[in-house]
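Input structure tokens:
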């Protein structure tokens, strides 16, 4: 297969971890006979510094003309939290999602058996955790009308949703549940928010078309508690933009490190793949950032194009790095290996798998579909 992939490293550790993803994709390219063409572009704080905008037009054009996008991270301290700033890095990512109509963010949360001791939660609570969050990505409060009255110090952020926006991601979530444990949990705040009430009406109506799928509804506050008390009860979580942002970051804690979980942002024509962690500027250029989330995001890219054998081979190499304890300092308390070494090890161990796909106990709880 031939693919043209836009590479947006972004800020902080973003370029470093994405570089490890590229190593792994090049290994897949060589092992399985594909042709991947990578082209880098600016986004975020670096783009502001060099071009005066967080999303330059040439970056947007590249993304629109590419088969897929690999994204790193975004944000730098000099722009974060400045109330007087008229421009900030995150605007670039928000605009990119809107321009490409990336309406569904898919975030799998699995606990790797070899790293189960990394989680702050009790092993018995999390050992069977295997859920995926379907977060609506192009609507809601992040994109609503915003105002700030400096005279009265009153600020407003408008949250709005249409039936069509809710419907299209709901169908994706229910279709995903058909291939999983056949349960969808809608997370909202329907006791106080009109947008959440619309979500409930639309989702309940669509659920009738999927009689084999169990639908439950939880308020966001209860869902956040349940994710800590009993995360294995969840299969597919469906929710809006802001609630999904919160829950997916919380989900990363279950795995023991925010550097472990990948994500995909998809639309009808475009797809972007990124780790869920931030830019972590304090670790920039120190060779300590965990590249696994970025590498597994490349695995989701392979799955997106139905290259499932290749994705399995990539995940097998990641699991081998865990079993050999070749990990970055945030995992297992190790400080022996850095970002580049871990990336090299995983890339060097990507190989064709036998028909049984046996990876001893590492793979038993994960199942063959090791990313989603």
């Amino acid at each position: 297969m031939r693919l043209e992939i836009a590479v947006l490293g972004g800020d902080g550790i973003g370029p470093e971890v994405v570089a490890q993803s590229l190593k792994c994709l090049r290994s897949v390219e060589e092992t399985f006979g594909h042709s991947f063409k990578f082209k880098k572009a600016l986004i975020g704080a670096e783009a502001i510094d060099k071009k005066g905008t967080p999303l330059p037009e040439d970056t947007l054009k590249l993304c629109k003309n590419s088969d897929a996008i690999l994204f790193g991270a975004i944000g730098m301290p000099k722009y974060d939290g400045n109330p007087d700033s008229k421009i900030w890095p995150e605007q670039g990512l928000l605009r990119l999602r809107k321009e490409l109509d990336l309406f569904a963010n898919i975030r799998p949360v699995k606990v790797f058996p070899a790293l189960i001791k990394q989680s702050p939660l009790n092993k018995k609570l999390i050992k069977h955790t295997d859920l995926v969050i379907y977060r609506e990505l192009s609507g809601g409060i992040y994109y609503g009308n915003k105002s700030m009255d400096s005279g009265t110090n009153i600020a407003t952020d408008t949250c709005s949703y249409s039936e069509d926006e809710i419907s299209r991601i709901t169908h994706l979530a229910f279709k995903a549940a058909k291939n999983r444990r056949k349960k969808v949990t809608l997370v909202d705040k329907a006791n106080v928010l009109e947008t959440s009430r619309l979500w409930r009406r639309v989702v309940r109506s669509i659920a009738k078309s999927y009689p084999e799928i169990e639908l439950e509804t939880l308020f966001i506050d209860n869902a956040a508690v349940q994710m800590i008390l009993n995360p294995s009860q969840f299969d597919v979580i469906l929710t809006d933009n802001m609630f999904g942002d919160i829950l997916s970051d919380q989900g990363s804690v279950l795995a023991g490190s925010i550097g472990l979980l990948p994500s995909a942002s998809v639309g009808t024509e475009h797809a972007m793949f990124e780790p869920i962690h931030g830019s972590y500027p304090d670790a920039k250029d120190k060779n300590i950032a965990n590249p696994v989330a970025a590498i597994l995001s490349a695995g989701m890219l392979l799955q997106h194009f139905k290259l499932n054998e290749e994705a399995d081979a990539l995940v097998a190499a990641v699991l081998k790095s865990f079993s050999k304890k070749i990990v970055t300092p945030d995992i297992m308390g190790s400080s022996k290996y850095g970002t580049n070494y871990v990336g090299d090890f995983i890339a060097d161990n990507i190989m064709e798998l036998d028909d049984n796909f046996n990876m001893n106990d590492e793979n038993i709880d994960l199942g063959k579909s090791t990313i989603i």
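Residues 357-370 have pLDDT under 50 and may be disordered. The chain has twelve helices and twelve strands.
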